[in-house]
Amino acid sequence: MLRSQTKLFALGKRQLCRSMSKSCDLTLVEVDDKTGIATLTMNKPPVNSCNLEMMRALKDSMKQIEGNKSRGIILTSSNNKVFSSGLDLNELRNPEQERLVAFWKELQEMWLTLYLSNLPTAAAINGHALAVGCVMASACEYRVMLPGFTIGIHATKFGYVVPPFIVNSYLSVLPRPVVERALLQGKIFSTDEAQQINLIDEVANSKEEALSKCASFIGSFAEANPVARALTKRQLRAEFARTLLDEPEAELKESLEYITSPLFQDSLDAYLAKLKSKNKK
Amino acid sequence: MLRSQTKLFALGKRQLCRSMSKSCDLTLVEVDDKTGIATLTMNKPPVNSCNLEMMRALKDSMKQIEGNKSRGIILTSSNNKVFSSGLDLNELRNPEQERLVAFWKELQEMWLTLYLSNLPTAAAINGHALAVGCVMASACEYRVMLPGFTIGIHATKFGYVVPPFIVNSYLSVLPRPVVERALLQGKIFSTDEAQQINLIDEVANSKEEALSKCASFIGSFAEANPVARALTKRQLRAEFARTLLDEPEAELKESLEYITSPLFQDSLDAYLAKLKSKNKK
Amino acid sequence: MLRSQTKLFALGKRQLCRSMSKSCDLTLVEVDDKTGIATLTMNKPPVNSCNLEMMRALKDSMKQIEGNKSRGIILTSSNNKVFSSGLDLNELRNPEQERLVAFWKELQEMWLTLYLSNLPTAAAINGHALAVGCVMASACEYRVMLPGFTIGIHATKFGYVVPPFIVNSYLSVLPRPVVERALLQGKIFSTDEAQQINLIDEVANSKEEALSKCASFIGSFAEANPVARALTKRQLRAEFARTLLDEPEAELKESLEYITSPLFQDSLDAYLAKLKSKNKK
């Protein structure tokens, strides 16, 4: 995709700025004039960890793309080693209640916006995709990954019990027995392993190739009526989004209770201490 | 299967005639005296498109076979190029309300009769199986296909949003991620592709061989108690037929609303115009 | 696993004895001091058929292991040809009502205890695993089998319609289309066939190797928080245990009605007569 073929989403960018406190750059949106495909780039240094602001930026960018008659969305990262490290664990550790509520609501809405997007969605996974990084990739319709990276939901390793909508992201891509084992082990897959179990669809040797393969996938819907496509997708996926569509407050309450429990807080502390001591060595 | 081994379903045929306006030949039923297996042949020129009368004939023939202590049903076509082209789009285009209601009810009942049949069911797919042609094959327990043909549900290509019972036919055979992508793309699979994803179970080189392989499959239930088999099948499949069993009227209403919407009518017009111009070239 | 590394579960054994009428040996529990993994051995001659007492012993042993801070459970058999032959058909043939109620409740509770165990569970299938023998293996998280044996649920062959929780054991391991066909045919798979469809995870050449592979699987959860693991497992499996968790009485009633029906009793008689005449030859 040549730069000259793309235009920066100027209006969108400005709208985005109003809704963010500090920076306009957490996400970047470019639309290819020729293909009509939007590339949504996660751009939060150092590792695209998802705090409240990042998830709001992602959600806003997706809504903006949908509103702008694009033909599809490719989700990728500006960091060439990390797609996303997952949720910002600082949001979960000893959280302030009001912030935690806002944070979790943004996660719910971001996920719904991506999972039920009217547009074809694809992830160009050009770096490690951990926890919510993997969830976002799984919520897309197609995944192309670069070799030498890892992908997976390792929540049980830091004492976290994933909520049903995250289980369902995995179930949208993988068979139930594979999902169960992967979640219980907190399994992180290499690019090769991910391809073997069809967690990813293709391997690409460069980000450019990954973007191009994602664009080809989006092109595979050329003959499909976009409205019929969107309604069919919603029908197929609504079952898996049921809790969040019908009872977001109940899911919020349950998640908050677990996150603020001593069980989880102690387990998170232990995990972070272990990571710290590993990094020192 | 030699002709001499089979007898025409004489009584059944006559019953069939009473329920049809013009012809007795939309479907043919032959029962093999030796194996007790009934072959149900779709016989509506030119391409076994499913209008109201064809679906009623199919349903009636299946009920007749079930009532006649046959050991299994093989669904096939008298046309050696087309298994079935799917619904007769004339029933859907600018439909007269009363006819549309009758048409849709017959589709619901025909599908339920096939999907929940007490008997082992197999499809000898001796030609293209498109849209409802593919749905009928998927509603059987086994599929044998001849090489060089195509099979799939391409509804999104003519702006149609398949109802849940059609999604469930696919889900009875294919994994969820494969179903989603196939339905959204309106993907038509070649015989080879269909075998790779297990949409079909076997490839046969002639219709005779296909019928023979279907008969072998039906023979695999020789040691199973037929009543226990039928009840187990119903238990497994009832979940996927739930809407049609419990709320056929609601499904009818929803389908009618969509079919008569300008959204669908315009999309269908555009599709038919495109087909016409393709055929002229 | 060397004998010297294991201790007999003395307290547990005594508790077990109180709850059983005749013998303390229906099940054996050994815990490896080093790994903390408990081996639960079925030990009811000649073929580990599951009568009321056997299922109670299995349930009690599992509860005892869970209460004793073990790190995982390996289910295996002391018989080197039969893992388990399934339910004791004497409990089903012309049953006395009170005994049948108690029997079925034990089956429900044994299954729930195993399927929803907080611990990692694995089956070292060192012999034929038929009917409920296969169900128990499928309710574990991992399966290693010795070559030359068979595994499957052949209920339709003796006229039995498996209840939903047994269907769900299979669905926890196999794709829906495979489950449907296997249950309807009453298919018994060889070790090789079972591996091809992923009904088992690995083949081992000796019981020792099977136990060791099961222990490795249980070791794969070393980095997972045990509480988060258990809660995640329960969340994933609760859907499939829903009927038994919420409405065990309804399931009991339905099962009893079917078991005591002439339809089933006649079919069971015919099956047993056939087995008898086969054995005579």
Automatic annotation (TrEMBL), chains A, B, C:
Protein keywords: Acetylation, Fatty acid metabolism, Isomerase, Lipid metabolism, Mitochondrion, Transit peptide
Main location: mitochondrion
Database matches in SUPFAM superfamilies: ClpP/crotonase (SSF52096)
Catalysed reactions, semicolon-separated: (3Z)-dodecenoyl-CoA = (2E)-dodecenoyl-CoA; (3Z)-decenoyl-CoA = (2E)-decenoyl-CoA; (3Z)-octenoyl-CoA = (2E)-octenoyl-CoA; (2E)-tetradecenoyl-CoA = (3Z)-tetradecenoyl-CoA
Pathway where it operates: Lipid metabolism; fatty acid beta-oxidation
Region forming the signal peptide: none
Keyword Transit peptide annotated: yes
Tree of life domain: Eukaryota
CDD domains linked: crotonase-like
One Gene Ontology cellular component: mitochondrial matrix
Cellular location(s): Mitochondrion matrix
GO molecular function ontology, one term from the record: delta(3)-delta(2)-enoyl-CoA isomerase activity
Function: Key enzyme of fatty acid beta-oxidation. Able to isomerize both 3-cis (3Z) and 3-trans (3E) double bonds into the 2-trans (2E) form in a range of enoyl-CoA species, with a preference for (3Z)-enoyl-CoAs over (3E)-enoyl-CoAs. The catalytic efficiency of this enzyme is not affected by the fatty acyl chain length.
Known partners and oligomeric status: Homotrimer.
PANTHER family named among the record's database cross-references: ENOYL-COA DELTA ISOMERASE 1, MITOCHONDRIAL, ENOYL-COA HYDRATASE-RELATED
Name of the protein in its database record: Enoyl-CoA delta isomerase 1, mitochondrial
Organism: Drosophila albomicans
Gene label: LOC117565900
